[in-house]
Write a structure and sequence with these properties.
It contains 9 helices and no strands. The protein has 313 residues and is mostly helical. Helix 1 packs antiparallel against helix 3 (63-88). The chain has one domain (3-310). The longest helix is centred in the first third of the chain and has 37 residues, at 3-39. Helices cover 69% and strands 0% of the residues. The relative contact order is 0.14. It has helices spanning 3-39, 52-55, 63-88, 97-117, 123-147, 157-182, 224-252, 258-280, 285-310. It is globular. The structure holds protoporphyrin IX containing FE.
Length: 313
């Protein structure tokens, strides 16, 4: 393929993928708002109103948010097809093609999961939705990076290892946070740093780690399962802060990763602060939505630092 054609195509793919990243973040924001408001965050009288949607007694007016969610999700799907078309026709262009294809497959899977996710009792559908939403941001941003011209530079191997470990822990923290949300377990632990004097999860609470379940009522304060989720989420977040924070600080010293590492550290601290403030505020809806969206942005930027650091490690 002539070089000029190739760079024009890559430029179009990059712009499309960047637009898709922005739209994915918007979808995430709107669906977190619908889900968390539905759960009862920010409702009154708190906490009695929490989880009333499960018993069918909550009066919710999420009409506009649902229309916005459907509109943006449909537009994203159309642009997802356009992106794959750009990457595959007239001939496949590397490196962005596989990421764009994976993104489209994920969009189609989430469209089907969406058929079940309006029922708040199905924890697994909400769980897949939260992780899938993060996956949309991650893959669209990965496609944009693959289509871009930014180069990596030699980075020490231990930095790459540190970033891998930090991102793995970050993914685990996101899964645990998602479980608190979809299991309606926010009220299980409204204090910090302990949960009503408990500092370590009881073995009996570990069954709450299973997302493939249906939920009938919100988790009461001090419930073993809910407490286990909160404590594990916090501990994983602390280890993530340590590993990703160290990785980010080391990446600051490398010219190729300096800019993204600065953003990574800012998002990491913001995410921790939002988590703590969500609890201290008595589960403010706005803070919880911001906490949900920031998690995916953090994942995408963490992956960017890793991609740049790995380029010639
Ligand atoms: C790296 C740090 C962290 C990440 C990536 C993270 C990620 C997440 C995610 C993805 C959710 C699910 C939100 C949703 O339902 O849409 C969540 C929920 C939550 N997180 Fe975190 N979190 C972090 C740190 C913290 C910290 C330090 C605290 C508090 C000490 C905290 C408290 C909470 C609470 C209370 C919820 C439940 C809110 C709800 O959905 O009902 N998080 N977190």
């Amino acid at each position: 393929m002539p070089t000029e054609n190739r760079s024009a195509r890559l430029q179009r793919i990059k712009i499309l993928a960047q637009v898709l990243t922005a739209l994915s973040l918007l979808i995430l924001l709107v669906s977190a708002y619908i889900r968390l408001r539905g759960a009862g965050l920010g409702c009154g009288p708190w906490p009695d109103c929490y989880g009333q949607i499960l018993t069918g007694t909550a009066q919710l007016h999420n009409g506009e948010a649902r229309i916005l969610h459907r509109g943006v999700a449909s537009l994203t799907l159309v642009l997802g097809f356009a992106l794959v078309w750009q990457c595959r026709r007239p001939q496949t262009i590397q490196p962005p093609a596989p990421y764009a294809t994976a993104l489209l497959v994920l969009m189609i899977v989430l469209t089907f999961v969406g058929l079940w996710s309006s029922d708040p009792h199905r924890a697994w559908a909400g769980f897949i939705n939260i992780l899938g939403g993060a996956g949309l941001v991650l893959l669209s941003w990965r496609t944009a990076l693959a289509a871009g011209s930014a180069q990596g530079a030699a980075s020490p191997r231990h930095l790459v290892g540190l970033l891998h470990a930090g991102l793995g822990l970050l993914a685990l923290t996101i899964m645990l946070g998602a479980l608190i949300g979809v299991r309606y377990a926010a009220t299980a632990c409204p204090s910090l740093p302990d949960c009503g004097g408990v500092l370590w999860p009881a073995t009996s609470g570990l069954s709450a780690l299973n997302p493939f379940t249906t939920i009938a009522v919100a988790v009461p304060m001090g419930d073993d399962g809910g407490v286990a989720l909160h404590l594990l989420h916090r501990y994983c977040a602390l280890v993530t802060l340590l590993l990703l924070g160290l990785g980010g600080l080391q990446a600051l010293a490398q010219p190729a990763t300096r800019q993204s590492a600065g953003l990574l550290l800012t998002l990491l601290l913001t995410q921790m602060a939002l988590g703590v403030l969500t609890v201290l505020s008595g589960f403010s809806l706005r803070l919880a939505v911001a906490h949900s969206v920031c998690a995916s942005a953090l994942l995408a930027v963490g992956m960017q630092v890793l991609v740049r650091a790995k380029a010639s490690a």
